Fold this protein.
Amino acid sequence: MTRPTPETLAHSVRRARNAADAPGDADHTRAAATPAVPAVRPASAQVSGAGSLVRSLEALGVDVVFGIPGGAILPAYDPLYDSTVRHILVRHEQGAGHAATGYAQATGRVGVCIATSGPGATNLVTPIADAYMDSVPLVAITGQVARPAIGTDAFQEADIQGITLPITKHNFLVQDASEIPRVLAEAFHLASTGRPGPVLVDIPKDVLQAPTTFAWPPTLDLPGYRPTLHPHGKQIREAARLMSGARRPVLYVGGGVLKAGATEGLRRLAELTGIPVVTTLMALGAFPDSHRQHLGMPGMHGTVAAVYGLQKADLIVALGARFDDRVTGKLDSFAPDATVVHADIDPAEIGKNRHADVPIVGDARHVIDELLAAVTAEQAAGRGADLADWWAQLDDLRERYPLGYEEPADGTLSPQYVIKRLGEIAGSDAIYVAGVGQHQMWASQFISYEKPQTWLNSGGLGTMGYAVPAAMGAKVGKPDTVVWAIDGDGCFQMTNQELATCALEGIPVKIAVINNGNLGMVRQWQTLFYGERYSNTDLGTHKHRIPDFVKLAEALGCVGLRCETAEDVDRTIEAAMAINDAPVVIDFVVGKDAMVWPMVAAGTSNDEIMFARGVRPAFDEDEI
């Protein structure tokens, strides 16, 4: 990968400023990616435990890891120096974890991060928890103090295995160097199969230093791990029968459909049945936003039609979704008349929040394929649902309550307009990575997601600081794809140090900072529920321009741009799009009073959805 020199970075800064005035003159160069090529090594060799670790990573096809060295993990960095596995030196372990997550979400492969013992390992806790909540295949490798020192409160000792037990799919403390190939192979298998998730491998320093024999392939020893991939035929037939007889059905699609690679089957199922589709925040891109049958995103900030559709459904077919509280609102009032078909690869999810009338355990791709066959059989027998009245209701709501926004009364730049234009200019082939807050919701609402793996965000944990390192990981995994991080000024200040990594490693991500001067979503809640008492939400990025994001970007080796008016939005985005040999940061200075609508207040029923402040949708009396 080409690394920019200070001279080329300075040239990019000058060129960007010129391009902002005349984007047609900008240079359209692209930093070339150097893919890792697995080394040809003997299947068995005498090595150290560290050498066995690195050879295991090579044998598993790992092309990149994100990490920071330290005392306990240092033995692993010596053989890594000569490895074909690319190591990206991040500036904080949290950045390593989120970068590995972004890589995994963009590529579908296992992301790998490395940290040393103690504080290095504990800095991975947030990204591990994040990956756990969002079912991301991640392997975190941590160094540990030497075995004789474990339990003595040794320098930089922390029981990372115990700490992460509740937030990992599985974790290991390696006790013998000979176990390393088997443990690594098992970790990757566990992370990537069944319901994906993070796996931690903790290796004491003396185990890394011990002599051992590396042998590949190892024999996996996971006797209790047998994910159910194929659903029960009887349950599939019952689901198809219900789908063929329902009057108000909805396909409720979660992130499991993306994880299973089932998007094409989902489209065929929706078109075969004519059933409306809603996609959760984690499933955007699983079904094209532009498709006529797509009602949008349900839940707290979902569309009126999607929220209403679920609430008034007589049948909900949940595919790889978990009935999260942000979707259901007040649980005991959610979809009171709906029969529920719940399909998930994780049996623990079925019935956890909402009783499933027809539980189906299986991989979403196999479930959908078998539903297609069963529904086709129902239709061949003359059984099919008439959904004309249902669609008439939903189409009426879509027409009356479309997603939209009001321009700020004070003439400031609208954040919704910025994000909408960004999506239109960058297009549906780009990858969009969001932080957490108002900008995340606007990015989910005003960009059209037509393809899978083009929308990455921290859904379950809601991690501020996710966007920049996750975008870095996504760009490493998809070097030929444009990657935009849409971040807030609060989120951006948590992990923007990873832009130094991007600049030095030749990873040309693009960052749109939606700078409203505040912790926007918290401020919105203070406006609505705390009498406009804005306690500790003003960040000073408007009043004092601290930090100055353009200067900060340039200090971190990036191109820095600023946009403060609607007239300059397109020109600034196009200038950023023209730069492909350095990271770009745009400081979009937007109004502080914009809010995310629609909204279902936390803890209330979806029946109480607000279309805008003080505006409730008008439904017929015999409806909501």
